[in-house]
Design goal:
Distance between the termini: 9 Å
Keywords: DNA recombination, DNA-binding, Transposition
Protein name: Transposase IS66 family protein
GO biological process, one term: DNA recombination
Pfam families: DDE_Tnp_IS240 (PF13610)
Structural class: alpha/beta
Order of helices and strands: HHHEEEHEHEHHH
Radius of gyration: 19 Å
Function: Involved in the transposition of the insertion sequence.
Length: 235
């Protein structure tokens, strides 16, 4: 749990730091875009300051969000998992970002590997199960490494494959792809893993499934999400 003294040695108010971090992670903005938006609001900080805030506080905010949501959704998210992987360039070299979402699009895990094989799939699934338990159904594409990894875990009968069955997770890649373009790719594997984990938690926090709810319900849930964000790491 985050200590109450998180912002103790910072002259800038916690509200401004939270705003800057939210703008950078939630929206497809560059560091300089965030600097300009803050300047428009009368807040004079450099893009390097925004970078420092994101690196310092982003993982803290994400950890607090994740801790609360895992406790709330642990039983509910076990019905069906959708698992998929996409390639991401890191300093010009191809890496793979493995992601799992539940049946409502909640991002459960994001994990980066250098290779796309049984060993990587097994490591990802073990990490996923350690945090969320075991699902009743695991939807994947027809990539053979998934079946091999699930066979080793004794869960082959839980796998489901189909032409359109995995659209849920494939569509969930889109917000990350937009952020990737704004950031002009990644320089290190560690940076990719860090940003993917933080982005997933923040996306979960603000994703209200607005197409499935009335306007009044959406406004209430959005307001609640913003209020909860403003209380992160406040002690």
């Amino acid at each position: 749990m985050t200590r109450p003294a998180t912002f103790k040695y910072f002259k800038t108010s916690p509200e401004i730091i939270r705003l800057a971090v939210m703008l950078y992670i939630r929206f497809p903005l560059s560091l300089r875009n965030v600097e300009d938006l803050l300047h428009e609001r009368g807040i004079d900080v450099s893009h390097e300051t925004v970078r420092y805030w994101w690196n310092r506080f982003g993982p803290m905010f994400a950890s607090e969000i994740r801790r609360k949501r895992v406790q709330q959704l642990r039983a509910f998210s076990k019905w069906k998992w959708h698992v998929d992987e996409v390639f991401v360039k890191v300093n010009g070299k191809r890496h793979y970002l493995w992601r799992a979402v539940d049946h409502e699009g909640e991002v459960l895990e994001a994990f980066v590997t250098k290779r796309r094989n049984k060993k990587a799939a097994l490591k990802f699934l073990k990490k996923l199960m350690k945090r969320h338990g075991k699902a009743e159904n695991v939807v994947t594409d027809r990539f053979a490494s998934y079946r091999a990894a699930l066979r080793e875990l004794g869960a082959t009968e839980k796998q489901q494959t189909g032409r359109w069955l995995n659209n849920r997770v494939e569509n969930s890649h889109l917000p990350f792809r937009r952020r990737e373009r704004a950031m002009q790719r990644f320089r290190r594997m560690r940076s990719l893993q860090k940003f993917a984990s933080v982005h997933s938690s923040v996306y979960n926090h603000f994703n209200q499934e607005r197409s499935l709810a009335s306007r009044d319900t959406f406004k209430l849930t959005r307001t609640a999400a913003l209020a909860e964000w403003r209380q992160l790491c406040s002690g």
